[in-house]
Amino acid sequence: MASKILSLAAHQLPKDWRQRYGFEPVLLETFVEYEHHKGTCYKAANSINVGRTAGRGKKSTSHKRLIPAKDIWLYPLRKNFATLLCK
Questions:
Q1: Nearest partner of 38 among 6, 70, 75, judged by Cα
Q2: Whole-angstrom distance, CA of residue 19 vs CA of residue 61
């Protein structure tokens, strides 16, 4: 059920972004707190686990873990997403 909902959202999102912002994203990024969740629904939806955050937060100025670390899951919306991102 969750993978079906993710699939529907991934199908609709590029259209909504084109209408609102004038371009379509080529990749979805999701963060999952691995200590509480396994990311099973993302794996079932063919997302790719590419690593883990350090748990510092994007505005942190220290090298200490301040927030829970998260697994990073990516879902390509286009087959040639890497080529498009490198332009």
A1: 70
A2: 36
Q: What ranges in the chain are assigned the alpha helix state H?
A: 2-21, 40-44, 81-85
pLDDT attached to residue 66: 76
pLDDT at position 55: 81
**pLDDT for position 72:** 97
Give the helix, strand, coil percentages of the chain, each rounded to 5. 35, 20, 45
Contacts of residue 82, defined as CB under 8 A and 6 or more positions apart, other chains included, come to none
| Token pair belonging to 48 | 């790719």
**Gap between the Cα atoms of 47 and 16, Å rounded:** 21
Query: What's the domain count of the chain?
Result: 1
How crowded is residue 63: how many other Cβ atoms within 10 Å of its Cβ? 7
Domain that includes residue 17, residue range = 2-56+64-85
Residue 87 has a pLDDT of 81
